[in-house]
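Quick one:
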Amino acid sequence: MESQVRGGTRWKRFAVVMVPSVAATAAIGVALAQGALAASFSVSGQQFKVTADQLEGDGFAQYGAVDSGYTLDGQKTAHPVAVSAFNSATIKGLCQSVVTPNIPIIGNVSLILKAGGGDKPVEASKLYIDLDDLSADATFTNIDIGVAAKDASKGPGIKSGDTANPYGFAQQADHASLSGVKQTAWATTAGTFKLSGLKMSVQTGTHECY
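Output:
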């Protein structure tokens, strides 16, 4: 069975976790481009934006969870998110951006990461995206809606460390195909994350993927 959904699904917006140094981010980015590291991205005190021309994912599941962490001024936070999980995924035209505001003397600084823009898409395994806002054109193959999170067996399972109700609402599908993806996220984690054609830049001012 195929179910096609057009347009956007919107969750309430909240704020996020930790800004790495530029040097450390560059070193990690090179390793990720070579497929050498597991990946984990989170941005403290704010959301980051992600766009993709096309995402093809096998073994899809989605469930609700609560992310916790610290704001930029050290305050504890806890916020609901929708976790989209894939056993494996390929992504074409990936862009990820985060703006760090109000740095003394400099002002706003934007970190922009792009990959998968050529013949080779980004490749990821055990991919989890903690998001609170998503719009895309989406097609799901063999979708099950309203299963308990613990029973969503088509995806990689509830992420270790997630605060999630195992009996809460979830959905799953054999395959998910999304185009024109725009989302704001709190965190992205993956068992492996290979960023083909990685390009990263740091710019003063506000520059975002959308």
